[in-house]
Amino acid sequence: MSKKLLSSLTSGQAIMAMNLALVLLMVQGSWDILRQYDSIAMVQAAMENILQGLSTILVAYGLVLQEREALLKFLKLYPYGLSPRQSRVDAHCSGYGLAVILVGMLVSVAVYLIRMPDLDIVDFDPALIVLGALACLTGAGLLARLSWLLWRDPKES
Known about the structure:
Elements: H1 3-9, H2 12-35, H3 40-66, H4 68-74, H5 84-115, H6 125-152
């Protein structure tokens, strides 16, 4: 792949576009769960599957964000393409990537507590599902905040 294409795929604009797609996905998944809260007993398995999928996405994407600098070094785009702006993007991505990983892990733990065979916490299942949905919304908020920081970052340096 050409360096120009690789630079475009790892740019702040590409990250913002991916963040937007994931924010919409997190909001949609959380909305699907929260709007059906009254009938949780009938659709609990589907809600768990939604949360498990969203948590996997959050953890994987958070890892990619956190390791953006290492990825660009591996692709040999750094040190040649390293600028003060790229360094700031890397710093933002690293911090927010770690936060997104932690939120994704929280969602995954909530789902695991429900599914764990030797742990009978049926009374807490609805609360754990709501906690997972709210954590997904928190992840969406983190990605939106990261996009805001990348968008308002000065372009000239």
